[in-house]
Specification:
The complex is a heterodimer of chains A (137) and B (170). With 137 residues, chain A is an all-alpha fold. Chain A is built from five helices and no strands. Chain A is elongated and about 140 Å long. Chain B is mostly helical and 170 residues long. Helices cover 77% and strands 0% of the residues of chain B. Chain B has eight helices and no strands. The radius of gyration of chain B is 17 Å and the shape is globular. Classes of the chains: A mainly alpha (137), B mainly alpha (170). Chains A and B meet through helix 1, helix 2 and helix 3 of A and helix 1, helix 2, helix 5 and helix 8 of B.
């Protein structure tokens, strides 16, 4: 669409210039607001974590605090386990004594040993239960 | 390029166009300054915003347009006051020593103020930014056909309003 004469006449009207003093005011306000972010700005270094944390930094801070509490509680409850671990495994002598003690308790509960009835000797029998007929001639 | 240089460069390249657009759109100088400052604060906080932009000017106009719309919505009850501002003659154009030119610019500023803000935005971007309808559609977040029709309606209104004066100075 080619502009007609009226459009060209409008286009020729020069727009008002931006007040010169605005430049300093706006840029200094922007720099103040940018603050530390501007001074340390490095797109390659900061972009990935900013993209990760920017949506909701409070949520991430809360999550980090929860993890700190969990780790603290974990550390507090792990101490007795460490003490037990430092005692080391039982020796063979201790194990033997424990075993004898156990045998003693079992014998008290069960009573004196009675020899078991000897099992009957197994005699193989014919496979078939039918009696073999004898034929008299 | 350090960030302060980045901001200064963006300001020097685009602030004049953004100022003219916002002034014509809001018809209020103090509000224009606030919106322009908000835009540069936003850029200072997120310099990466411009990295993904295909065309910086179009992208910045889009940001400015969205901020202006938000500001108008926030005003809510004060909307009528805003419309009063729009109808008033704001110095959108440079002053001229030629009396005829001065009168024409004054009348043009008033006629622009009578257009609905969205038509005014499209007319401004087409006539004084020289953007294509595609770029205007992108900047204003509207379909291409809507941009074209808004321009046509807006221009027709300006033509009807300014015809006598235009014929006189032609």
């Amino acid at each position: 669409m080619k502009p007609d004469d009226f459009e060209k006449q409008l286009q020729r009207q020069p727009l008002r210039a931006i007040p010169g003093e605005w430049r300093g005011e706006i840029l200094s306000a922007a720099r103040r607001a940018g603050g530390h972010q501007l001074l340390t700005f490095n797109p390659q270094r900061t972009s990935w974590w900013r993209e990760l944390l920017w949506p909701c930094p409070q949520a991430w801070a809360g999550l980090a605090a929860v993890w700190v509490v969990i780790l603290a509680l974990n550390g507090a409850t792990r101490e007795p386990v460490q003490v037990a671990a430092t005692q080391g495994p039982p020796t063979a002598r201790e194990m033997l004594m424990a075993l004898k003690e156990r045998q003693r308790l079992v014998s008290q509960l069960v009573g004196p040993c009675v020899p078991a009835e000897p099992s009957r000797r197994f005699v193989p029998r014919p496979r078939s239960e039918l009696a073999h007929p004898t034929v008299a001639v | 390029m350090s960030p302060p240089d980045f901001l200064a460069r963006v300001y020097d390249d685009h602030a004049q166009a953004l100022f003219a657009f916002l002034l014509n759109f809001t018809r209020h100088e103090t509000e224009t300054k606030d919106l322009l400052q908000d835009l540069f604060v936003k850029l200072a906080k997120q310099p990466s915003l411009l990295e993904a932009a295909r065309d910086e000017r179009t992208f910045l106009i889009r940001l400015a347009h969205n901020q202006a719309i938000d500001a108008m919505r926030r005003r809510g009850a004060r909307e009528k006051k805003h419309e009063q501002f729009a109808a008033e003659s704001v110095a959108v154009f440079a002053t001229s020593a030629d009396p005829d030119e001065r009168v024409f610019r004054q009348a043009l500023a008033e006629a622009l103020g009578e257009l609905p803000p969205e038509q005014r935005a499209v007319v401004h971007l087409k006539l004084w930014e020289g953007l294509t309808f595609e770029a205007i559609a992108e900047a204003c977040g509207i379909p291409l056909n809507t941009a074209a029709s808004r321009y046509r309606y807006g221009l027709d209104k300006l033509r009807a309003r300014l015809r006598p004066l235009y014929e006189e100075i032609k």
